[in-house]
From TrEMBL:
InterPro entries per the UniProt record, alphabetical: FAD-linked_oxidoreductase-like
Domain of life of the native organism: Bacteria
The UniProt record lists the keyword Oxidoreductase: yes
Organism of provenance: Pelagibacter ubique
Entry keywords, A to Z: Oxidoreductase
Protein name, UniProt field: Methylenetetrahydrofolate reductase (NADPH)
Length: 242
C-alpha cells in the first residue's frame, strides 16, 4: 500500500515519516511562494512534493504561471488542484478554470473527490464538476472519511485511481469537528451511531478497520494529520506501513 500525507509550509520536515508523497497545503490567506519553497525543501530531502493549487486563492493567470514555474524550478512534478474553501480573491472560482489554462502541462494532476458531498457545493454541482475535471486528472484524492460504503461506491464510478482520505489517531471531539468542516455527513452519523466503534478508532491502529474494508478497491491512502504528525508517524511505524 502507498501512503501520502499533508504538511503546511512551516512544518518541520525532520519530523516526517518515510513516505514518498508529501502534499503541501496553501490555506486561505497563505502565500503560494512559501508552498513552492517548501516543495523545494522536500525535494532536497528525497520526497516527492505535491503542492496544493486552490483556485480561489490564486489571483490571476500571471500569479498562477509564477506559482507553477516556481514549483517546477524546485523539482516538483505533481500538483493537487482544488477549488479551495474561501471566497475568490481574483478571477478564479473553481478548479476547472485553472485546469483549462493549460499551464499544468507536464505535471501529474490530482483533483479532489467528495464521496460524502461538500459544504460548499450541491451534489448536482459536484457531479458536474467531476465530469468537467476528469479529463485533466491523473488521479483523485478524496475528503477524509470513516464510513467505507460511500468510498467503495465512489471508487466504482471512477476511471482514474482513487487515493482515499483517512485520518491519523485523533480524539472523537476532533474527528467530529473536522468532519463538520469538510462536510463528511455520513462519517458524522457513523461516529454518533457507532459510538463504541468510534472509541476504538482512537487507538493508534484506528484507521486499520477502514483500510481493511477498502484496500481491495484501492491501495492508495492519503493521511490528513491535522497537526498530529507525531502520532501519525508512530501509527505508520507500529503497523509496518513504513
Amino acid at each position: 500500500m502507498n501512503f501520502s500525507l499533508e504538511v503546511g509550509p512551516h512544518t518541520d520536515l525532520d519530523t516526517l515519516p518515510p513516505v514518498k508523497d508529501v502534499y503541501i497545503t496553501m490555506l486561505p490567506g497563505g502565500d503560494y511562494k512559501e508552498t513552492a519553497q517548501k516543495s523545494g525543501d522536500l525535494v532536497k530531502k528525497g520526497f516527492n512534493p505535491v503542492p496544493h493549487f486552490p483556485a480561489r486563492s490564486i489571483a490571476d493567470e500571471t500569479q498562477l504561471k509564477d506559482y507553477i514555474s516556481r514549483c517546477k524550478d524546485v523539482g516538483a512534478k505533481q500538483a493537487l488542484v482544488i477549488g479551495g474553501s474561501r471566497d475568490p480573491i481574483g478571477k478564479f472560482d473553481s478548479s476547472i478554470q485553472i485546469l483549462e489554462t493549460g499551464f499544468f502541462d507536464g505535471i501529474k494532476i490530482g483533483i479532489a473527490g467528495h464521496p460524502e458531498g461538500s459544504p460548499d457545493m450541491s451534489d448536482t454541482e459536484l457531479e458536474k464538476a467531476m465530469i468537467d475535471k476528469k479529463p485533466y486528472a491523473d488521479y483523485i484524492v478524496t475528503q477524509w472519511l470513516l464510513d467505507s460504503q460511500p468510498i467503495v461506491d465512489f471508487i466504482s464510478k471512477q476511471s482514474v485511481p482513487v487515493h482515499v482520505g483517512i485520518t491519523g489517531p485523533m480524539k472523537i471531539s476532533s474527528l467530529i469537528k473536522f468532519a463538520n468542516i469538510v462536510g463528511a455527513k455520513n462519517s458524522i452519523n457513523f461516529l454518533k451511531s457507532n459510538f463504541s466503534k468510534a472509541l476504538d478508532l482512537l487507538k493508534p491502529k484506528d484507521p486499520n478497520e477502514l483500510i481493511g474494508k477498502v484496500k481491495e478497491f484501492t491501495g492508495n491512502f492519503h493521511i490528513y494529520t491535522f497537526g498530529g504528525l507525531k502520532e501519525t508517524n508512530k501509527w505508520l511505524k507500529e503497523n509496518g506501513y513504513v
